[in-house]
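Job type: complex structure
Entries:
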Amino acid sequence: MYTLSRDVVIINELGLHARSAAGIAKLAQNAKSKVWLIMGEERVDASSIIDILSLACSKGSKITLKIDEESDIDILNEIIELIKKGFLE
Amino acid sequence: MSDTNAIEIVLNGIGASPGICIGKAYSVDKEGVDVVRKYFIEKGNLPGEIKRFKAAVKKAKDELKAIIKNSHEELRQQSYILETHIVMLKDKMLYGRTIETIEDERINAEWALKKVVSNLKSMFQNMSDPYLKERAADIVHVSDRVMKNLVGAEPVNIADIRKRVILIAQDLSPAETSQIQLEKIKGFVTNRGGKASHTGIIARTLEIPAVLGLDQATRIIQNDDLIIVDGTAGTVIVHPTEETLVKYEERKIGYEEYRAAITRGSYLAAETTDGFQLPVMGNIELPEEVVSVIDHGGDGIGLYRTEFQYLNSSVFPSEDELFDKYMDVVEVIAPKPVTIRTLDINGDRAIAPGAERDEINPALGLRAIRYCLQNPEIFKTQIRAILRVAAYGDVRILIPMISSCDEICETKRILNEVADSLDKEGAVFKRDIKLGIMIEVPSAVIMADVMAEKVDFFSIGTNDLIQYSLAIDRGNSEVAYLYNPLHPAIIHVIKHVADVAHEKGIKVFMCGEMASDPIYMPVLLGLGLDELSMNPQSIPAVKSMVRSLNIEDVKLFMQDVLKQTSATAITKLVEDTYSSILYDKIYHE
């Protein structure tokens, strides 16, 4: 199975709170296959805002985004861009 | 009134927004949502049950979209919460799991949803992060909306309210408050919530009376009941007698006159009846707020919090960016003083750009001056901007979280160094700026006599000082009731700081929440505070209270206060002695 992952650091003040998690989930829901959000040992489904919130990612946490299908590469990049821009907050 | 059988009932809750209103109750209780039946579904009927659930979710989504579209402009910025709610509706943890539960357990959609939500709720409530903990409320608001559609409960449409009413609810969600047609609402009454709740904030913003946290309000108050809401005292009166009605009509008029009078009087000095003038200043965070301080009759800025520029960007602000913002404030308020507090980044406000740290106990961690002294370049940039702007007005510098004399010496060394380098560059700046420290850590209280020799003024930050002195986390609802500015230990602490400061010939200010409540004025004047600073909206009421007091009286009164050994006794003494003055002012009784 094809896998691709990218690392990113959360820079916005509140970390992955409801609004930012919703931003990620909205994008991930467009993926054909799964988009995973990994922090430390934990791995959650990036299309679920509640799942993302359960990670309690604060500012400065390093997370990894991973996709199962190559065709979702654009979505992966979009999410990374969103995080890098601090969710335009 | 028309119902002659009804007995007058007085309910006591939390006065979250002051003022009085009298009118018809309009209950938006989510009845039927809390009582959910459980029943089993035949295997063949499962697809139908799932379809019913999906339809309820779809309907909820459409409702939220419509709310966002029609929401009041003043509340538009909250619509992101609703956008988040829309995404949450289809979340697999909520949506997917409920469908799975219906299938796996062959139970009805209502029961499955209830089960899923209660699991999610407990997951969030076990989190240590207070912000994430709060998110459980979002899940409840979202699922309540779906549940309402499932049980077919009469949709409570706040937007449809046609007459002027007082809203009665369990709690109001952001979705509900953003639909309210403000001109239709006279007041708010809820079972849950407190001063800091969403409804409380909205009510104060709109200046509508609100009494929250009443527990039984929705059970006792029926639609169209005549009620009186006294948001100042925190009481709600159901089925008032003619006599009560007349009394409150008068109070209402009195309160409105009081509001008008203190607003008119806000430009006058806060001078006691025996001629002592107390400077009453405003706390600000954004330069724009300086206008509000002036409008409310503030005598200057007693606390300019400077974190905002750091928190809202991913890079540190430059010296010129800081200078420009400070200049906005200094220019507008000059010649009145501006007290700029240096960076107080701390645990509950998240950390600075670039920092990558997780502190177990941020309130006791690397914050404020500790952070600045460890990051001298960041600190120097801010000091440079402050010294430069000081050339254009009466600027004071205030250092937060001082806990040792070394920190003061180190700060002064940096101040001198920065001044030298500005001098060398030929910059326009002011070297001999007034330097003050926040008294908010118990060690600073104990060392106050030594510290007073090193600085020009003290400013007591009551919020942190009380928290650290009494070992109480205000955000922890289990112990929040112990947080009381009138605790005898706090009174003695403030007295010690004020006495020591005056002995050494420096002034002592206060900028915590304690300074913003008129009822504390006798105590603060009695303790000899030289200046108070508060949120701009509180300035008129505080000034008005000060004008009715007399220094000699409050000094005598303090002798009694200092003899008390419990917070309850002091609170009672203050209320017995002064609440009539305060309430007379409010109600003209």
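Summary: The first strand of chain B starts at residue 9 and ends at 12. Residues 347-356 of chain B have pLDDT under 50 and may be disordered.
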